[in-house]
Design a protein that fits this description.
9 strands; NAD+ binding; alpha/beta; Rossmann fold; 2 domains; NAD-dependent protein deacetylase; 405 residues; NAD; three-stranded antiparallel sheet; transferase; 38% helix; metal-binding
Length: 405
């Protein structure tokens, strides 16, 4: 038999195996959370996601990998960088979680002692995740708003990891950035918003749960940090206002499913950074790439191993450390350290340093202007209450007097 014929037979057998397992995988797939913070989200979006996983995920735990599919010269971060440079990689998908924001001052959810879930004991909840449960929030929103002060701290700057991903986009390597984070730091990097998929929403905007009135980020942030405000209520109808983040019991944005359906068949490298990979359906994205696509995990701990290992005919999850691994790489460390390592190996270190300095300077200037504006507003209120005793005391007071405020 010729090598060409043998290859053809192998492909036909693979297609036959795919047909056998596809229906079974669809039955066995865990039911995904639904999809969308938007009204009228697609009712079958979870089936779309299950179909995506079934189409591009591995077929059987007993299948032996075809080592000819190994595209990395070595299963190391150096091998990944060599693959990027030598193979003209242009469709990188990045998956990120709370770990990429901790160095910016945003606590993650699950770290013992410091994670948000470990700091909600004061609310006497049977399960700390209830704070992010939509049914509980509608009955008692106050615990969420108290916790949100830690969840959305002010004067934050994106991390080196954030900016590395923006640099990937500037280099034309990034297909899409999928994030679980709700801190909105991704938007502050200056990356094109079309490149972002905020799988769990963000607090860029908020919505009244009664009349659906919309409020911007400045409005909700002002409410969060007003001492006498325990819950944000709608200025139009008095209903509870909720940041547009996805709570347990709510649907994920339709954009998450529509983008993943078209993106993952194109992906030529998957990079996963700073996530525990336990929340579905986001965690299942690692199995949505084609079988030969390399996957790099940068994290402090090992995660993502054999997510569906309880199913006898389903092989999925990351395979780093396994004898038959041919594509997965685990680099242990912080996401910032991993970002600097990648930048160094790619020859981008100086560019990353310059980008961070430029963007941090812009954010610092913006924060200073915002602080000055707040100071002026406070002083104007004071002059209204008490009269202007010293018109020369500040520029704000002068401006207030000129405008007869």
């Amino acid at each position: 038999m010729s090598q060409k014929q043998e290859s053809s037979d192998t492909k036909e057998q693979s297609d036959e195996d795919h047909g056998k397992f596809e229906e079974q995988k669809l039955r066995l797939e865990e039911k995904s959370s639904g999809t969308s913070g938007d009204e009228g989200s697609s009712p079958d979006s979870s089936s779309i996601f299950r179909s995506l996983i079934s189409k591009f995920g591995n077929l059987s735990a007993n299948d032996k990998p075809n080592l000819n599919r190994q595209k990395l010269s070595s299963l190391t971060i150096e091998g990944v960088v060599e693959y990027i440079l030598d193979q003209n990689i242009k469709n990188i998908i990045v998956l990120t979680g709370a770990g990429i924001s901790t160095s910016a001052g945003v606590p993650d959810f699950r770290s013992p002692g410091t994670g948000l879930y470990d700091n909600v004991a004061q609310y006497n909840l049977s399960n700390p995740m209830l704070i992010f449960d939509i049914s509980y929030f509608m009955k008692n929103p106050e615990p969420f708003y108290k916790l949100a002060k830690n969840l959305f701290p002010t004067n934050l700057k994106p991390t080196p990891c954030h900016y590395l991903i923006r640099l990937m986009d500037e280099k034309g390597l990034l297909l899409r950035w999928y994030t679980q984070n709700i801190d909105s730091l991704e938007f502050m990097t200056g990356i094109h918003q079309e490149k972002l998929v905020a799988a769990h929403g963000c607090h860029h905007s908020s919505t009244c749960l009664s009349c659906y009135a919309k409020y911007d980020q400045n409005w909700i942030m002002n409410k969060l940090f007003q001492e006498n405000v325990n819950v944000a209520y709608c200025e139009k109808c008095g209903g509870i206002v909720k940041p547009d983040i996805v709570f347990f019991g709510e649907n994920l944005p339709v954009r998450f499913f529509s983008c993943s359906k078209k993106d993952f068949p194109k992906c030529d490298l998957l990079i996963i950074m700073g996530t525990s990979l336990v929340v579905q359906p986001f965690a299942g994205l690692l199995d949505a790439v084609k079988e030969e696509v390399p996957r790099l995990l940068i994290n402090l701990t090992e995660v993502g191993r054999s997510i569906y290992s309880s199913y006898p005919h389903s092989r999925s999850g990351l395979c780093y450390g396994d004898e038959d691994n041919y594509r997965d790489v685990f680099w242990r460390g912080t996401t910032d350290d991993g970002a600097w390592k990648l930048a160094e190996l790619l020859g981008w270190k100086q560019e990353l340093e310059q980008l961070i300095k430029k963007e941090w300077d812009k954010i610092e200037l913006k924060n200073q202007e915002k602080a000055k504006k707040v100071s002026c507003t406070t002083e104007r209120v004071s002059t209204l209450d008490n009269g202007i005793h010293d018109p020369k005391s500040s520029e704000c007071v002068k401006a207030a007097k000129e405008k007869n405020l």
